[in-house]
Amino acid sequence: MLCNLDAKVEKPWQREFKQNPLAEIEKDRGRFVAAALTIPLGYFAARRELPIPSLSTVANGFEQWNNFVREPLVWLGEADPASTFEAARGSDPKLQAKRAVFVAMAETFGVGRERGRTASQIIEAVGFSPELALGGDPKREKLRLALLSVAPAGTKEISPIRFGAWLRSAKRQIVGGMNLCSDHDRTNTAVWWIAMA
Fold it and tell me: Would the CA dihedral through 5, 7, 9, 14 be positive or negative?
């Protein structure tokens, strides 16, 4: 979940406060617990149905949080805290890099088992470094940049070892409706391709 706190200063960690919130809570814990429970208790007393999607469609395993925190807050008129799930996922740099590789592989080689390539063949298609890259093909350049984001060797070269490890870690994952698949060829070398999920 995303949470934004704007202290409106350049270095918020250097601010000084007159009060210590944790000490205040410890001093009068009962009052703070009662205040925190007022919202969910009010919600349960009202027994109001909410026209919001069930959390099971958003994040399984958070049923209690959904019942005691999310639904009461939405009932109170606050923004749905679960609405940040997709935003957080969309801004995940590892997920963005994975999506970029999947898209670039599909665009460069096509989709399906018959379009499979070994890790070495994928790297060779774009060149280990810019000097070896096959120039003039925007699809291959897009793939080269995507591979650099997941398996860099320095700033401009692709690491075959890192790329092989990355492929193994991304196997069977679905991103943007695409799935990274793998099998072995007749020489028992792993072959990788993109399938539509």
Answer: negative
